[in-house]
Specification:
Layout (H helix, E strand, L loop, with lengths): L1 H23 L16 E3 L47 H20 L7 H14 L7 E3 L1 H11 L2 E4 L2 E5 L5 E6 L4 H5 L6 E5 L2 E2 L5 H8 L6 E7 L7 E6 L1 E4 L3 E5 L4 E6 L6 H13 L5 E5 L8 H11 L6 E5 L4 E4 L15 E5 L6 H11 L4 E4 L7 E7 L5 E10 L15 E2 L12 H12 L2
Parallel strand pairs: 12-13, 13-16, 16-17, 17-20
Antiparallel strand pairs: 1-4, 2-19, 3-10, 4-5, 5-6, 6-7, 6-8, 8-9, 11-12, 14-15, 14-19, 18-19
């Protein structure tokens, strides 16, 4: 019995030390692969009342590719560190850690019931260690959840076609649905709370555990137990899963002559698709452009800078400040003139689900007085995470820096206040959008 226990101790200690080392030495790495997303994972498109969960997805400089959301493109290099320095521990550190083994030995000898396997204990220990940091964005993502994120990176997945997040009560909330997708066709709506999946309660589960149950092969059915404000009792909706493509932009020239461009997330093609959408709208000589960033959970830092640059002719887009005091203004040479959207009248729609990279764009356009913000205060996700892919396919994300707007306003924990506040009514009629209507009125009248 002694040898297996010692082997287990060595195994678990090695994994814990690896995680600890990653945190201790994080600021010393110069890797380009950094995360700062809100955490929103796609089960479909984001909606105007999204409550973003802490996942989603930035770089020391804009010349390197970076990820600030939860749907990176599959062409990225591995985020696994090539070298982890060997730490030197003090004797008192080792003595303190011995307490862990005292507890575990007592549990093994005295616990009445079945003990979890080594992997479950290891994961639980890592989760507990990271929870002690008090930072919801420094997180350990287990292999199944990491595989979900990897699938999203392809731009396609099999599921119900909705964006989901954890609300303030830690209950899974539908933040939006793909138009015409399985969830939409079945009657799932933004704001719905999911209580059970196929009869299994997901209340108390992590976001990724819940998503793992909702996802499934195309053609299969999943039964969701839904709580909706307008309905007294929870009810069930059966959704037939399908293979879906994650939408990035929605482009429309309205009958009133206003161009509408919605950017759903900052994927690795956000700049390209936004520029294409702008070109399409400008061919119609619109009276103004509405850039809709509501429900946008973030994406890639370099893409957020390039999208902002489409509307700016010079100057800083974002300030990145590191824990060691380093500071960088991005892009280093400032926004460049000559882009399509620099002169057209512009309004940006935001809400409580506008997060991370989307807040970078909104903050830059607001500070530079290039556009006004209409809607609700944004989410307030302005911290930067670096991802590490671990040996078993799991992922470690560690907060290493924070973002500030060009006028040095903090984003993290505060969000951006709109120039014209338009709260989303609880009883808004289906098909109505008071925030969009206000943006149109402003562009047409200037008020």
């Amino acid at each position: 019995m002694k040898k297996p226990v010692k082997a287990f101790r060595f195994f678990l200690l090695s994994l814990l030390l690896l995680a600890i080392v990653g945190i201790i030495f994080m600021s010393g790495f110069g890797s380009a692969y950094l995360l700062a997303g809100s955490g929103a994972l796609p089960m479909g498109t984001s909606g105007p009342r999204q409550v973003v969960y802490p996942t989603a997805t930035p770089l020391p400089d804009s010349s390197q590719a970076s990820q600030v959301g939860e749907t990176p493109e599959p062409t990225l290099p591995s985020t696994t560190p090539t070298l982890i320095p060997t730490p030197v521990y003090k004797n008192e550190d080792q003595e303190t850690f011995q307490l862990f083994w005292e507890v575990w030995d007592l549990v093994q000898r005295n616990f009445y019931g079945d003990l979890p396997d080594i992997q479950a204990i290891t994961y639980a220990a890592i989760h507990g260690m990271l929870d002690s940091l008090g930072d919801q964005y420094t997180a350990f993502i287990e292999p199944q959840a990491a595989a979900i994120i990897s699938e999203d990176a392809t731009g396609e997945f099999e599921g119900i076609g909705a964006f989901v997040g954890m609300n303030d009560d830690n209950i899974l909330e539908i933040s939006g649905v793909f138009e015409g997708g399985p969830a939409d066709e079945a009657g799932v709506k933004a704001g719905d709370l999911v209580l059970e999946v196929d009869g299994v309660s997901i209340v108390g589960m992590s976001l990724y555990e819940a998503i793992g149950l909702i996802r499934g092969p195309a053609g299969s059915d999943v039964t969701l137990s839904i709580a909706r404000k307008s309905v007294n009792e929870p009810f069930e909706i059966v959704v037939t899963r399908d293979r879906l493509e994650i939408p990035i932009t929605t482009v429309e020239i309205r009958e009133d002559g206003i161009g509408y461009l919605r950017l759903h997330e900052f994927s690795a093609t956000a700049r390209k698709l936004t520029e294409q959408g702008l070109a399409e709208l400008l061919e119609e000589n619109p009276k103004g452009i509405i850039l809709d960033l509501r429900g946008n959970p973030g994406g890639w830092l370099d893409q957020s800078i390039e999208v902002a640059d489409l509307f700016l002719d010079d100057g800083v887009v974002v300030i990145e400040r590191w824990s060691d005091g380093q500071e960088k203004e991005l892009p280093p040479s400032g926004a460049q003139p000559g882009d399509l959207g620099e002169d057209i009248p512009l309004v940006v729609l935001v809400n409580g689900s506008t997060a991370s990279a989307a807040e970078i764009v909104a903050g830059a356009l607001q500070d530079r007085e290039r556009a006004i913000l209409i809607g609700e205060t944004t989410f307030g996700k302005g911290s930067v995470q670096r991802p590490f892919t671990l040996s078993d396919g799991s992922e470690l994300r560690v907060t290493i820096a924070r973002w500030f707007t060009p006028n040095d306003r903090a984003i993290q924990g505060q969000g951006l206040e709109p120039d014209i506040e338009v709260p989303w009514p609880e009883d808004v009629a289906e098909g109505e959008d008071p925030q969009l209507e206000q943006a149109v009125e402003y562009l047409l009248s200037g008020d």
